[in-house]
Structure formats: C-alpha cells, structure tokens
Amino acid sequence: LKMSWLRFYLPLHVLMAACLCHSIKPPTTSSQQSFRTDLFNFYHSLILADGKETTVHLMKDIPKRYYFVLEESRVLSPFTITVTPCDVPIEWSILVHKASASFLGKETQGDHDTQEVSRSRKAPSTVSTIFNYKGNSVETYMGMSSHSALYMLEFLSTERDTHITVYLTTDTTSGHLYPELPMDPRIDVIGVGHTTVTLTWKHSPSVLQHRESIQYCLLVNEKHNYKSLCAAETAIRSSGMKLPPTLALSLSPYLLEPQQVMILSNSELSIINKVSSGEVRQICMGTKNTYTVPNLSPSTQYYFDVFVVNLLTNASAAYTGTFARTLEEPEPKVTELKDGKVIQVVLDGKKQKFYSLQYQARHKKVQFSFQLCRGQVRVHITKNGKTVASENISGLRYFSLKGKLLDTYLVQLRSTEESNSSVKVQVSPHFHKPLFPLLPESLKIKSFSKLRTCNSVTIAWLGTQEESKYCVYKRRIEENQVWRELQSIDRCSGPESRHKSEKVLCKYFYDLNPQRAVTTETIKGLDAGTLYLFDVYLFGPSGIPVRYHSKVVKTRKKC
C-alpha cells in the first residue's frame, strides 16, 4: 500500500460527495457524525505519516484526530497502528470511511479493555468504528484492506494534558521499527540478596538478528512498573528531572543534570536519577539477558522493567515488568567496649545506620566520653533496654551514669549528615582519670589584626587552672583551599599527623584564676601577603590531645 496524494484527489472528492449524501441520515454514533464533519476540513487536518513514529500532544478533554488513506489493491494488504501512552490512560479509536464493502480487521496484543468491531456493508459509502481502546498499555492494531478508504484516528485524554506516540506502517516487508519481544516476555527473578537482585529474561528475536544495533536496558525504581520507556521518562521529568527522551538509553552524548550520576564500568552504562520519590536507575548492559542489580537497600521493594531498544531509531519494546523485595538486613554487629579503651568509629552518612557498642558495668558508676572528630553524630544510650541519654553531640561530651553491677549499656551512634562522620568513644569507671584534659571555656584561637606585619602574626588562646602542654602548628594554604581545609579537618587527629616542618613551638602554662589563663604567641619568619592555617593542641594527663578550632590569618602585603 502506498500514500499517493496526487492520485487521491479525485477519489477524495467522490468520498466527500458520498459523505454529503450520507450525512443527512441520523448518525449512528457521535464519533461517526464528527468523522463526516471533519471530512470537509480534510485539507486542514493532520495527516499521519506512514513508516514514522509521530509524537502527539493531547490537552485534557480535547479530542485530537489524525488521518491516513489506503488505496485500492487487488489483494488484501496489511497495515498496523501502534499507540504508546506516555503517562495517563487515554481513549483512542479507529474509524474508516470507504466506498466499497470488503473489509477485514484483526486486533493483536489486546487485553480486557480492548473492543473490536468489524463491520461489512454493501453500500456506496460507509463509516465504521473498527477499533477502540481505553487504558495506558501499548496497543497494536493490525488490519487488512483491499479497497480505497479514509481512516481517522481519534485520541482523547480525560485526566490531564499528556503525550503519546503513534506509529503507522503499510510496509510489513522492510522490517520492524520496534524491536520484537519473545513469545514469553516475562522477567524472572532468580536471586534475591540483602542488597542485590538477579534477573533474567528470554532473548528478543531482534537481538539475535541485529546484535550490533539492539541492546537491553533495565529501569529500577521503588514506585511501580512502567509499560513503556516514554512513560518512564515522563515520570522522571515530572519529578523535576530534565531528561531528553531515550537519550540515556541510546547512549547519545549529553550533559548530565545535577541530579544525575553516570557510571561506566564493564561495558555497562548506569544512570542514577535523584528524584523526590527516590532513585530511578537506568542500566544498559548490551545484549546480556541476565543481570544482577547491585547497591540496593535491604528490606526494600523494587520494581524492574526491561526494554529492548533499537539504537538506530530509539524505538523500544517493554518486557512485562516484575518486582522483588530485598532481604532484611541482618542484626548489626555489636562491638564490646572495655574499661578505659578508646575506639574511633567511622559512620556512613549515606546509609544512616546505627553503629552499636555494648558495655557491661563492673562498677555502679560509669562515665562515657565522646569526642566528635568530623561531621555530626547522634548518640543514644540505653541501660537494660531503657533510654538514659539521647542527643546530638559536638566537640567533647561526657555522660556520667549510675546503676548496678552488671548493668548492660548499649551505645548507638549515627551520622546526621549525608557525608561520613567519625567519633572517639571511651567508657571508664574512673571519674578521677578523665580521658580528655580539663578544657577552657572556649577552644577558639584569636588573632590580633593590629599586630600583624609582613612576616609575623600574633595569636592568643585560653588555658586552664591545671598545668598543661600546648603545641602550635602552622601551614601555608591558598585562598581557594580555605573552605575545603576547614571542612575536612579531623578534630581527633593529633600532631602525629602533621609534618615536622609545620611545628612552631610547645609550651606549658596555667593560671589558678581562669580569667587570667590566657597566653599569646608571636609567630615570625612568615611570607608577606600569605595565608596561614594555625592549630593549637592541648595535652592532658592521659596524653590524648584536644585540637583547638583552626584559625586562618593572612600576613600584611605591604609594611
């Protein structure tokens, strides 16, 4: 069958004249009446292209119509129409206006929503509804015709504005735009772990015939299955993501949005879209039909959709989606705390999991000490199952608790930031031997702007009533490194992590009057107009240092 509009001018006028005569009769349906009316505006209507996928935008409650013409043929000639809803369910139907009577229609890939109406009339002109459908599944209508006929496709969305794709072809000998699905298009779940799910599916015949231009792509999300690739892309965009249609799956080069992460490994492309409802992963794995999805969350239900994609046309076909729930995470390991022993715990901010420490009291009074090294940490302490302390900590924090011998304490730690946090923990029955030295009211370092020169700066810090050791360190930094340096500082690290050349001096001092426990130091031998990072470390009886808040000072450029 061919689309020849020059040869159709005369038959068209004949059809229109027949329609004028026929239209004075009572209409059988409103759609048929609308069909006849639209014939008068045929030249101003939308013509559906043959052999090309057309995107149709629908406005709510406003029907949209497309037309195509089939010419007379001596033999029955097939044609197919595939409609793919990209969001909400739609209603669509096919009407035919023909001058002769022989017509045969056959519908494929339908479900209970699909109704087929095939009618044969011996009359000079007839209008028939041959197919209608309501839903959001991908539907393909296959018809056969041997007579000249004008077809109308009518689309309607009653929920909201949306878009669909329509594909008409009258040439069934030159291959398929859409990749073929196997006879059994289901996805099988063959393995489930705490953080992985293994899937397999039967090969598409298109993969076996055109291996170089066909590939499989997997979509993973926590919301629901998608019946088409364009439906999945619409959902991602509606969540705030700017995602060009099928761009990720066709491997075309483009700039990733801030909410997207691309991962290339082992000839696989993974794109993670950060949307409000969670992550949506797109993974293209070539022609492999078995895949293990990694890095899932335990005890979470995921939905999996496999699409077979034609890389040359971006057309795709969807397997029947499936879902699986990952296994529950095993009980977290509990680390035993021992009297006086200090341990440092690193907490994963992304997983937001609790890290558990257990301690069985050998004395009635115990003291838990925490030193925050990096990030923000939530501490939760229970005694025999009852909460005795729960708060976010900063800097140094002590919890002095009373109970009975052999009481069981459980300490749970969790990062309250997305980045990793770390904290040092100690439990001890010896209140008179604290883990950390006696601290001043403030751990800030002060600099004196008026005392700055081109090669020296003067800093000051508070001390305590007990004699302690203080060590000063300096490091030269660039202006664009200041924020990163201050954010990445490990407040638990001591001078052992510093280079020997960074050490300025160490000194002892104290004052029984806290108001006068202040010391100053002038650091010389600096470069003009240069930024320096200064640190002061305080050492107590236990030898564990406490780091003051770092101070950045710039020497004068001209003196």
Name the helicity range: under 10%
Radius of gyration: 37 Å
* Structural classification: mainly beta
Q: Give the oligomeric state of the chains in this entry, treating copies of one chain as homo and distinct chains as hetero.
A: single chain
> Mind summarizing the main beta sheet?
7 strands, antiparallel
Strand % is 35-45%
**Assigned CATH architecture of the largest domain:** Sandwich
Number of domains: 4
**CATH level 3 topology of the largest domain:** Immunoglobulin-like
- Head-to-tail CA distance between termini: 91 Å
Write up what this structure looks like.
The protein folds into 4 domains: 43-99 and 126-174, GOLD domain (Jelly Rolls), CATH 2.60.120.680; 177-242 and 276-330, Immunoglobulin-like, CATH 2.60.40.10; 334-428, GOLD domain (Jelly Rolls); 445-554, Immunoglobulins (Immunoglobulin-like, Sandwich), CATH 2.60.40.10. The protein is 9% helix and 44% strand. The protein is built from 5 helices and 38 strands. The strands form 8 sheets. Strands 14, 15, 16, 17, 19, 20 and 21 form a 7-stranded antiparallel β-sheet that branches. The protein starts with a helix and ends in a 5-residue tail after the last strand. Residues 1-28, 40-44, 100-123 and 242-267 have low confidence and may be disordered.
